[in-house]
Write a structure and sequence with these properties.
heterodimer, A: alpha/beta, B: five-stranded mixed β-sheet
């Protein structure tokens, strides 16, 4: 079975997505989601073909995207981070 | 640890200023960089980037914005800060419908030769804004030296 994939996107694929990806990986490790893959990218990648089951974004995502999108900004600022993890956990397969 | 405080200097800190628009803030901050530090088109790059990828963050107790242009406009990495007497509206990062009334604006200029610095400086700033009182004290600072101290620079 293909592993469940979380795609983290920001404007350039460098800065905020790296910070958010680190936080998401920590959350997954701590909660036993060993099989979930985390990948990073830039928002323009979403205009082409991409593979993801859920997207965590720090920037606006094109309306053509059909998978669930979670706003990852609280993981940058630390304010409201738990809600983001709760929302993500609801979409993840059972660990 | 001073982190990236050495990227700041008092000539790039504007305290308690009054600006009518976001563009005025961005242009004033861009103008604190010298021709040796940024390219002539830096301010335009900054405005364009903010339009495409807004940087307002709904922090408490005061709103924050972290504008930055593409690294190709930057020759020498640095930071510039403005605290605002009256908040100026920015669009929210990651949420096109959201608005942030910023009282603190921190401009991040990272040269494209050092892309890893972009992540490191952002992590440092996010650590600072999560310190209790940091943003409120920054917004209330009366002099550039006070701002420098709050960033850990003595």
């Amino acid at each position: 079975m293909r592993p469940f994939k979380v795609l983290i996107v920001c404007g350039t694929g460098i800065a905020t997505s790296t910070m958010v990806a680190t936080k998401v990986r920590e959350f997954l490790d701590k909660n036993g989601y060993a099989a979930v893959r985390v990948q990073q990218g830039k928002v323009m990648d979403l205009l082409g073909s991409f593979e993801a089951d859920v997207i965590v974004a720090t920037t606006q995502v094109p309306g053509t995207v059909k998978v669930p999108v979670i706003n990852g900004i609280p993981l940058l600022t630390g304010m409201g981070a738990q809600q983001v993890f709760d929302e993500l956990a609801r979409l993840l397969p059972q660990p | 640890m001073g982190g990236f405080a050495h990227w700041l200097n008092t000539s790039r800190i504007l305290v308690g200023r009054e600006f009518a628009t976001q563009e005025e803030v961005l242009r004033a901050l861009a103008a604190t960089f010298t021709a040796e530090e940024v390219h002539p088109a830096y301010a335009e790059g900054l405005l364009l980037r903010e339009q495409n990828y807004p940087t307002g963050l709904p922090t408490e107790p005061v709103g924050l914005a972290l504008p930055h242009a593409d690294g190709r406009y930057v020759k020498v990495s640095g930071l510039a800060v403005s605290t605002l007497r009256r908040p100026v509206v920015f669009r929210e990062m990651g949420n096109p419908e959201g608005e942030v009334w910023a009282r603190v604006v921190i401009l991040i200029a990272v040269s494209e030769e050092r892309p890893n610095d972009q992540v490191a400086v952002l992590e440092w700033l996010m650590g600072l804004i999560q310190e209790p009182g940091f943003l409120a004290e920054l917004a209330a600072a009366g002099t550039p030296e006070e701002v420098m101290r709050r960033f850990g620079m003595t």
